[in-house]
Amino acid sequence: MRLLYFSLDYTPHDHRFLAALSESGHEIHYLRLQRGPRQTEDRPLPTAVRQIPWRGGQRPFRWRDFPRLVADFRRVLRQVQPDLVHAGPIQTVAVFPALAGFHPLVSMSWGYDLQRDAERSAIYRRLTRFVLRRSDALVADCQAVARRAQAFGFPAGRTTVFPWGVDLQHFAPAPDDGLRARLGWEDAFVVLHNRSWEPIYGVDVMARAFVQAARQEPRLRLMLLGGGSLAPLLHRTFQEARLLDRVHFFGQVSQRDLPRYYHAADLYLSASHSDGSSVSLMEALASGLPVLVSDIPSNREWVEEDAQGWLFPDGNAPALAAKLVEAARTPTERLAAMRQAARARAEARANWPQNFQRLLDLYRRLVPTT
After folding, report:
1. pLDDT score, position 349
2. What phi and psi values does residue 200 have, to the nearest 5 degrees?
3. How many angstroms from the chain centroid is the CA of residue 77?
4. Can you tell me the distance from the alpha carbon of 97 to that of 137, in angstroms, rounded to the nearest whole number?
5. Cβ–Cβ < 8 Å for 280, 270
6. For strand 27-32 and strand 267-270, is the pairing parallel, antiparallel, or unpaired?
7. What is the DSSP letter of 46?
C-alpha cells in the first residue's frame, strides 16, 4: 500500500507513527503543513519514509496561504498517487484531502481539534462537519473524542479508538538515578509537571495551586519540564511567592532522557482543561508513578480516584492544592499500591505496539486488495 501521512508539523507523536508505519511494509510518504515556531522533535525521519517537498511545511501555517496550498496539495496527490491518505488534525490538515475529494481518507483527531477547536467559531464547526462527512474513517485516541465526533454526526461504526500508548520498556518503574540528590531533594515529596506551558494545559491553575499547597506542606517540590508562552507568568508566580528554591525549571528534555524524571518524582501532575489520551499521563502510569489530574472525561478513562492517583475539579486551584497536600501526606504503603495500579493500567491499555495494530487493521479494511 502506498500511504500518504499528512500532519500539522513534526512532533514526537508524528515520529512514533512514522517509525511504526515504516516497519509495516507499506510505502510511506510524509507531508507536513507547517514548520512551527518551536522545534518539538529533533530525531530525523525514519529512513524508509519519503518526505514530499511542497509549498507548505516551511513556516507556521497561515489561513491566507490556504488557496495556494490546496492547489499544491492536489499536485502532491497526482504525484504520489496514494492508495490511502491519513490526515489530521481535522480542521487544518484533513480539510485538504476532504476538499480534494480523495478516498479513502482516514482522518485522525489529535484530541484538541474535536474537543476544543470544533467549537471555536461557526467556521470551525462547518469545517469539522465538512471533513467528517468526507472521511471514510476516523481515528480517535479515547472515547471522549469519539463521542465528540458522533455529536457532529459521524457514525460510531466508522471510528477506530485506540490510545496512542507508550513504549512499556522505555517507560517502566525504576529507582531514581541520583537526580533528587543532585537537587538536594532526597527527603522531599517531588511533583513532576510535563505539559506545555500554555493556557489549554492549565499551567496557571497548577502554579497557583502549588503556591497554596507549599505553604501548608514544606516537603513539596516541583519539577517543571518543557516550555511555552506562559513562562513569564510561571516565573513571576513562584518568585512573588518566594518559592523559586522549591521549583526547578529543566527546559526541554529528550525522549531518551525523559524516564529519569519520572523515576525521580513521587507524583505526576496535569491540570489540563482538555485532552485526549494524554501521552505524558500514559508515560507516568507506565513508569509506576501515582498521578493527580483534572477531572475531565478523557482522564477519567485512565484514572480512578484513590486507585492510580487522584482527580480534582477542572480549573479549581484550591481543590488542586488540597489534593497536593493530601498526596504528600499519603502513607508510603498506600503510595506503593498506587504505583502498582498505575503500572497495571498502562500494561493493560497503553501498549503502543499492540494498540498500533488497530490502525493497520483499519488500513487493510479500507484497501483490502493490498
Report:
1. 95
2. -60, -25
3. 29
4. 13
5. yes
6. unpaired
7. P
Residue whose C-alpha cell reads 490546496 in the numeric block: 70
Helix (H, G, I), strand (E, B) or coil at 130: helix
- Phi, psi (deg, nearest 5) at residue 74: -60, -35
**Residue entry with cell 512551527:** 36
In whole angstroms, what is the distance from residue 281 CA to residue 360 CA?
Answer: 24
Q: Where are the alpha helices (DSSP H) in the chain?
A: 12-22, 66-80, 95-100, 112-115, 122-133, 143-151, 179-183, 203-216, 231-240, 258-264, 279-286, 297-300, 317-328, 332-349, 352-366
For residue 62, give every residue at least 6 positions away whose Cβ sits within 8 Å of its Cβ, in sequence order, or none.
none
CA distance 113 to 354: 25
Nearest to 103 by CA among 78, 80, 134, 76: 134
The DSSP H or E segment spanning 33 is none
Question: For 101, left (φ over 0), alpha (ψ -120 to 50), or beta?
Answer: left
Residue where the block lists cell 480523495: 102
pTM of the model: 0.89
**Which one has a higher pLDDT value, 89 or 38?**
89
**DSSP β-ladder status, 159-161 and 137-140:** parallel
Closest of 22, 76, 31 to residue 49, by C-alpha: 22
For residue 102, name the pLDDT band (cuts at 50, 70, 90). Answer: very high
In whole angstroms, give the CA distance from residue 55 to residue 15.
Answer: 21
Contact at 8 Å (CB) between 282 and 270? no
Residue 175 predicted with pLDDT over 80? yes
- For residue 238, pLDDT over 90 is answered with yes
Tell me whether the omega of the peptide bond preceding residue 163 falls within 30 degrees of 0, making it cis. no
**Domains, the chain, ranges and CATH?**
2-165+352-366 (3.40.50.2000), 179-349 (3.40.50.2000)
Q: How many residues does the chain have?
A: 370
Q: Which residue has the cell 517540590?
A: 221
- Return the ∠ at Cα 107 (arms to 6 and 277), rounded to 5°: 100
**pLDDT above 90 coverage of the chain, percent:** 93
Task: Identify the H or E element spanning 311.
Answer: strand 309-312
3-state secondary structure of 163: coil
Amino acid at 317: A
Joined together, the cell numbers standing for residue 105 give: 481518507
Q: Are strands 309-312 and 291-294 parallel, antiparallel or unpaired?
A: parallel
